[in-house]
Design brief:
This protein is α/β, with parallel strands linked by helices and 316 residues long. It folds into 2 domains: 5-123 and 268-283, Rossmann fold; 125-263 and 296-313, Dihydrodipicolinate Reductase, domain 2 (2-Layer Sandwich). The protein contains 10 helices and 15 strands. The protein has helices spanning 14-24, 39-48, 57-63, 80-87, 102-114, 129-137, 163-166, 169-184, 266-278, 289-308, and strands at residues 5-10, 29-35, 53-54, 68-71, 92-94, 119-121, 143-151, 188-195, 207-214, 219-225, 233-240, 243-247, 251-254, 258-261, 312-313. Strands 14-13-12-11-7-10-9-8-15 form a 9-stranded mixed β-sheet. α5 (102-114) runs antiparallel to α10 and α8 (169-184) crosses α10 (289-308). 45% of the residues are buried. The structure holds nicotinamide-adenine-dinucleotide. The site of nicotinamide-adenine-dinucleotide has 26 residues, from α1. Nicotinamide-adenine-dinucleotide is lined by residues 10-16, 35-38, 41, 57, 72-75, 77, 81, 95-97, 122, 124, 157, 172. Residues 6-123 form the Gfo/Idh/MocA-like oxidoreductase N-terminal domain. It comes from Actinomadura luzonensis.
Length: 316
């Protein structure tokens, strides 16, 4: 490997721009190429980072010289990019959600493991400094109740409102909160999601309430809505013996009184740890592809429960 770790990026939208900015700030990383099926988007992001642009991930991979690839495409577009990256024996960073279905993500996870390649997923909440503090505060006190929320506006991307493009709000957004719940509470055994009646054919549910039973015995609730004109409430509350914590992406509230602000470095750490893994260093990758697949399975179970109007057991 050259002294610079050469990263390719597939998909040149909002989140790719964020990763490209973070990666460009690392002295040992070079953005070696950016691909998007909309070539003009690849060109505009590539111009900012002084790298070549390509109209497909296949062209990016054919150009060669890469040490790792970020796949930052919308939910419906996952699959061939990841498998082609892996067929080049390259480490893979994938943005959540992993896919619309379970099979695509499972085949990618299997291939990553077959080739023993480093992987990471953009669950950057795992790197919040306040998450470490929450875990310390909960030491020896199992969580008995978890309340997750994602009450927000519709994100400004054209594909988001279509169920068959985004997978819906739980899979696309609340998956961050579900991932946090898995870290603080553990695995979920049963979910029952109830969507508010939908008005537009083919659109995502605009509001959903769900009950969850954790394998360790804790109870959970999840509420999502994209009916709002701005972000209202996004995060996770947990209750354990004698303590209540509320985590958002920016702060931890302890017992409704004490506020601990996050250090704001999670979105840098998620990239740094992956790059360290690519470089063969002892890296703290907190969400490998296999680990993210467990959260994805939970999100898909909730989506299925809402669609089928029935409880779903996670081992089904
Ligand atoms: N972890 C986070 O905090 C975070 C934040 C924002 C978005 N995301 C996730 O990142 C993904 C992308 O979101 P976004 O806001 O960047 O979307 P976007 O629409 O802004 O960008 C996606 C880009 O991918 C391109 N694309 C589509 N199919 C492609 C393909 N097969 N090959 C190459 N390029 C392709 C599109 O042309 C588009 O430019 C979503 O799944 C979203 O949930 C994660």
């Amino acid at each position: 490997m050259s002294p610079l770790t050469r990263v390719g990026i597939v998909g040149a939208g909002n989140v790719a721009a964020r990763h490209a900015d973070v990666l460009s700030g690392f002295p040992d990383v070079q953005i070696a190429g950016i691909a998007d099926t909309d070539l003009s988007k690849a060109e505009s992001l590539a111009a900012k980072h002084g790298s070549p642009a390509y109209g497909s991930h296949a062209d990016l991979l054919s150009a060669g010289g890469l040490d790792a690839v970020y796949v930052c495409v919308p939910p419906f577009a996952h699959g061939s990019a990841e498998l082609d990256v892996l067929s080049c024996d390259l480490p893979l960073f994938v943005e959540k959600p992993l896919s619309l279905d379970l099979e695509t993500a499972e085949s990618i996870a299997t291939e990553i493991e077959r080739r023993s390649l480093p992987s990471a997923v953009g669950h950057h909440w795992r790197y919040l400094g306040i998450l470490d503090q929450a875990r310390e505060l909960l030491e020896g006190r199992p969580v008995r109740l978890a309340l997750g929320h994602w009450l927000d506006k519709v994100p400004p991307v054209a594909w988001w409102l279509r169920q068959d493009r985004s997978g819906g709000q739980i899979v696309e957004q609340a998956v961050h909160v579900l991932d946090l719940a898995r870290v603080l509470v553990g695995e979920v055994a049963m979910v029952h999601a109830v969507p508010a009646e939908n008005t537009a054919e083919g659109e995502v549910d605009r509001a959903t309430a769900a009950v969850m039973r954790f394998a360790g015995g804790a109870a959970g609730l999840l509420a999502t809505s994209c009916l709002l004109s701005q972000k209202h409430r996004v995060g996770l509350e947990v209750c354990a013996e004698g303590i209540a914590l509320e985590l958002t992406e920016t702060r931890l509230l302890v017992d409704g009184e004490r506020v601990i602000e996050d250090d704001g470095r999670a979105k840098t750490r998620v990239d740094r740890e992956f790059i360290d893994a690519v470089q063969g260093k002892d890296a703290d990758v907190r969400s490998t592809y296999r680990e993210a697949l467990r959260t994805h399975r939970l999100a898909l179970a909730l989506a299925r429960s809402a669609a089928e109007r029935r409880p779903v057991m996670l081992d089904e």
